[in-house]
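@here heads up, posting the sequence + SMILES for the zinc ion run so it's all in one place. Ping me if the SMILES looks off, I pulled it from an old spreadsheet.
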Amino acid sequence: MRTVERPEPKGRNHYIIVTLDSCRYDSFLAAKPEFTRYLGDVERRWSYASWTAPSHYNLLMGLLPHKNPTHVYASEYYKEDFLRYNERLGAQGIEFRNMIPDMFLPTFLQRTMGYYTAALVSLPVLNPRTVINKDFDRYDLMNKHNDMRAMVEQMIFPDDRPSFYLLNVGETHYPYATPDEDPKDWPKISGVHGIFKHFDEQHAGGPLAESPETKLTFFDDNKLHQLRNRQIHAVQYLDEVIKQLFDIVPKNTYITITADHGELFGENGFFGHGPISHEKVFEVPFIEGKIR
Ligand SMILES: [Zn+2]
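bot reply: prediction finished. Complex structure tokens:
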């Protein structure tokens, strides 16, 4: 652990945020994952952003996907939402103003609440050189983009203080592949592979081409249907891994499972996420509760 001065722990709970990258709300429901039984009811919420980097920055400010409330000032909603951290952390007296001036949850947890802070991420746009790697004791981009089990196996919980983990999970991201699947069987879109070693987020979104010459490089309806089924299957696979997570966490662990944004499977001519403004790219599942 990096040597950082921090106070005696002020929270009773370990806290874990899991982002199922790109997981649509309706894919999550269709998968009928069992872990929902342990954490509570699945809520339909809304991401603040349509792709990975801004969405994770937003949630690391402490603002998780919102409820799309009407007749409320944004500042009042932020304040109200932040009070939820008292329950999540098993603490008292936490308010939005405690986040000022850094406005960053890892900073607040490490420097004010005395937590060990760690992030294990799957998507290269969140790699350790990016600005969101701030005030984490550990921050790692995983070797594979789609192996949550490897994250669970690497998690440690120091005895002397509570831990905070961000787990960015890639199985639900295009190409919706479980780690045992041979990459040569993955569905391919022209232009998506190659910029980063694994994936280029920005090319994984955007409208489908309309012209007949370029349309060939995108998916037809059949393929889009298959892709949606692959995402549902990825959630079903993750159900087992999340149960494994529930088994290894210490007593007093609170877990939030959500998505950083949704995904488009052909609606209005869109595929993926990113430069898209569509209800389904903002609609995300949200479920949280104390597991032990
Ligand atoms: Zn994402």
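MO: The pocket of zinc ion is lined by residues 21-22, 51-52, 123, 260-261 (CB under 6 Å).
MO: One more: The chain has a mean pLDDT of 90.
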